[in-house]
Structure formats: C-alpha cells, structure tokens
Amino acid sequence: MMPTRQIFYFEAKKRLICFVVFFSLFFLTPGSVLGEQGDSLRPRVGVDRVVGFFDAIEPVFGYGFLMSHHPSMRHLVKDQFTSYQLNISGTTSGKQHWHHLYRFPSLGVSFYYADFAYPDVLGEVYAVMPSITLKHKIAKGFEIVNRNSLGMGYLTKWYHPTENYRNNAIGRGLNIALSLNIEAAWNIYGPLTLKGGLSLTHFSSGAKAVPNKGLNIPAVNAGLVWMFNRKEGSNELVDPGTIAENHSQTYIIPSFGFKRVFPVGGPLYAEYGIQIAHVFSINEKIRLGPAVDLFYSSSDKAVLENRDDKQYSFGELAKIGAGISYEQVYNRLTFVVQAGYYLKTERTDVIPMYNRAGFRYQLTDHLLLNYSLKTHLFKADYVEYGLGWKF
Questions:
Q1: What's the rounded Cα separation, in Å, for the pair 56 and 108?
Q2: How far apart are CA 189 and CA 170, in angstroms?
Q3: Other CB atoms within 10 Å distance of the CB of residue 146
Q4: Sign of the CA dihedral with 53 first, then 59, 64, and 66 last
Q5: Could you tell me if 101 and 285 are in contact, meaning their C-beta atoms sit under 8 angstroms apart?
Q6: Burial of 311 from C-beta contacts in 10 A (0-12 / 13-18 / 19+)
Q7: Nearest to 357 by CA among 208, 225, 178, 227
Q8: Partners of 177 in beta bridges
Q9: What single DSSP character describes residue 60?
C-alpha cells in the first residue's frame, strides 16, 4: 500500500496537472487572449434583435465521467454518463467598446442536467448558469468558441450519516455550478451551426457544508445552434466603457468568508484574507502580474488546537502566500484566475498550493467589489467576499 505522504503528493500532482491542462484549454484560447489580426481588426457590424435580447437556442448532449480527484471518491465512479444542456443566448450589439474587442460575444443562460451514472447515491443535478461565449474566427463558416458559465446547481441527494453515507463528496443540495467549454463551430446552413468540443463542469458548496470534495465532470459535447430574431445592428459606440489603459495597476482587497470542517454538523468558521496584486496590461483584454496574500483561518485554529492539544497565536496561524494573477477584462467586470503557493503555513496536511477564480466589478475609478472561490486546486476552500481599492 502507498504511504500516506506519497498518496498526498500523488494527488497534489494529479490535481496540478488537471488545473494546468484546463487553464490552458479554457482561458488561453487565441481569441480571448491575443486578440485578432488583419481583417478582424476592422470595425464589424453588430446585431440587433427584432424582439427582446435572445437570438440563439442550442441543445447540447455531453458524454463524460466523474473525475476521482481523491482516493476516497473512487467508489463514486460507476460509468460514463450523458448530460443534457440547453443554452439560450443573445449576441452583443456592438454599442460598447468591449463588444468589439471580443468580436461580439454572446451572453446567455445555460440549463444543465445529469445523473452521474449513480443516482441512488449522488442523485440528479439541475443547474442554471449565466454564461458568456467568446468566438475566434478561423475560416469562413468555422470558429473556435469558448463558453464559460457560473451559477447554481441543485443536487437531489447529498451526504447523510445514516441514509446516504456513501456520498462523501457533497454535503448539501444547493451548490455552486461552474462550466468551462471549448468548442469548434461549423455553420452548416443559414441559421444552423453544428458544435463539438470539450467541457469541464464543477459542483461544490464552497465549504459551506461538509463533506465538500466537490464533483468534477470532464466531457465531450455535441450541439446544434439555431439563430433567430436577428437583424443587422450598428457600429456606433454608445458607451466607450472603461477598458484598461496600457499601464500597471495595484489592488488591495480585504476579504472574508465562511466554511465548515469535519466532523459533520460542526460550527461555521470565519475566514479572512488580504490580497495585494500588481498587474500589467498586456493588451485591452488581459492583465497579468504578481500577487501576495495574507490569510487567517479560524477553522485552522480549531483543527490545529484539537490535533496538537495546544494554543496557537495569531502570528503562528497567519498564512502567507505568493503567486500570479491573470485577469480578463469586460468593461467594468473582470474575470480573475490566480495560482499561488503558501510561503508560511502550519497546515502540513493541506496541499501548499492554492487557487482563486472569480469576478471583480469596478464601482468607481478606485472602489471595487470582489466575489471569488478560493480552492486548493480542485478542492474548494471557501467563497471570498471583498471590497477593495485600486491605485
């Protein structure tokens, strides 16, 4: 049998490889990062709707499996299964500068259903996720499409100490739902477009309940898009927006959150953090730079003092981390992904790498809101709520 420490580092390496692969697939696609060249830099005509906002509907079928990202989850993986998704979206009008930067992305809502091939224990999931779809034209009638969705999902079964003890992945019914998709799209006839690609879908409570290992579903997908309700729009910019200028920016963001730890039924612990990031504008879409974090966890205090039978001071419990921040800008809204490493921590039983994915919204020229999920690779730590300042 593999020693405990070897299992720990084996799982850490496996999670890190998965994180790097999916980060590369879903966030470093040419259209979303580098911008487009040549003819694509010319002004394009936007899209208006005859009635309402939506102009496309897309049924999607997925074929995937439950990823066993921890040894204790292997009994939950039974077989491959089919997922069903319905996407309703509308193409941006072109009246704001960022619409042109991203080649008229689509905004919409995704509805998702699956049974994980183990409905007796994992139940079924019903999810609703707002989404944004970015497009990169390769040739006439052919595009690479990157759709990212974030919302909520409801799982019909979760852990119970006597009635459903085999479900050691999910601790409550209502969970965060995240879906990342990269697809090839072929326009086969007029309003009809055929799509096929890869996806990763994730469900977790953000440590609001335990157990909280989360569910990760890699899948291959196929879908058919029907475009309707469209007429030619305008290139006129009604709102030039607040797209980043080509200079560096510094953020200070205090944040807080809550989490539960084992045993099941324990109290809700408060978590605190301060993040300082200095990012550089690579172009109007992308910022990149170093980040430093200071964390204090009341759950760490409870776990360590119970384990070691001694008191820990604030200085001993404080965690220091450093890493890199990647930001994708959509006018006042910014999508943020970070990867970091703990330089100081007392928790030797936790993977020393942490990640953050979430959103920031610029309220004023300096004041911003932060909502993000802090994780240890694919395992959720807690949801962060913050109010920060940009210099």
A1: 9
A2: 43
A3: 26
A4: positive
A5: yes
A6: exposed
A7: 178
A8: 151, 203
A9: E
Burial of 314 (0-12, 13-18, 19+ CB in 10 A): exposed
User: Whole-angstrom Cα distance, residue 225 to residue 90?
Assistant: 12
Which amino acid is residue 241, in one-letter code? Answer: G
**pTM for this model (two decimals):** 0.81
**Domains and their CATH numbers in the chain:** 22-232 (2.40.160.20), 248-390 (2.40.160)
The residues near 6 (Cβ < 8 Å, ≥ 6 apart) are none
Location of structure tokens 């100490």: 161
Contacts of residue 185, Cβ cutoff 8 Å, sequence gap at least 6:
135, 142, 143, 144, 145, 193, 194, 195, 225
pLDDT tens, per residue, the chain with 391 residues: 445 445 445 555 555 555 555 555 555 554 444 444 433 333 444 555 555 678 899 999 999 999 987 788 899 999 999 999 999 999 888 788 888 888 889 999 999 999 999 999 999 999 999 999 998 889 989 999 999 999 999 999 999 999 999 999 999 999 999 999 999 999 999 899 999 999 999 999 888 888 888 899 999 999 999 998 766 555 555 554 544 455 789 999 999 999 988 887 788 999 999 999 999 998 888 999 999 999 999 999 999 999 898 999 999 999 999 999 999 998 899 999 999 999 999 998 888 999 998 999 999 999 999 999 998 876 788 999 999 999 9
